[in-house]
Amino acid sequence: LVRSRGLGDVYKRQSEDITKKRQGEEIKEQKRTETDRQKAEVRRLNHECAAVEDELDMLEHEIEDSTMFISELERKKLALNHSVNTREILGSLRLEYCPECLSPLPEDVPDGTCRLCKSPIENKTGIAQAKRLISELTFQIKESELILRNDEEKKMLLKSKLRSLHSQYKSARKVLDEMLGNVRSSMAEAIEDLIYNLNSATL
Description:
Distance between the termini: 16 Å
Strand content: under 5%
Number of helices: 3
Radius of gyration: 42 Å
Largest sheet: none
Shape: rod-shaped
């Protein structure tokens, strides 16, 4: 009876130890600080990766907008240049016949008035204004191209930073997985030892 009671006490203590081991209380307590530190590092790197990816995405949209803006400025500049050249070439050309009906155009038209539509003609003023617009567009294009180059350089730096962060994250994640794997392995070994000791005590 005494021996049975002793074995019962041993069995109870061993069962309690197994339960504690299964819960991971003792092993987790030993490894908690190091594992938690590694988890925090993994979270930090993951957040940094996400932040850089968001910044890169916004920058790519800005680059796309800048490229489209520059293309539109260049289109307007080209159109203005074409208009100025046309006005300079044809400005002194006197039309004798209507291009629509081929009828002779009237001669008694005041200077500075269109013989076709009778609207005022301001060749010099119009050309001067167009040339000013061309200069302004040229300046805007140069400024926009400078911003675009800076954004492209920043994009390359962000991509390089992101590759580095991804590499750091993978390494930190691997270390964490190994640490968690070791904890699980140690826990399983401890449980197996306790079960073995319990079985030995009951024999």
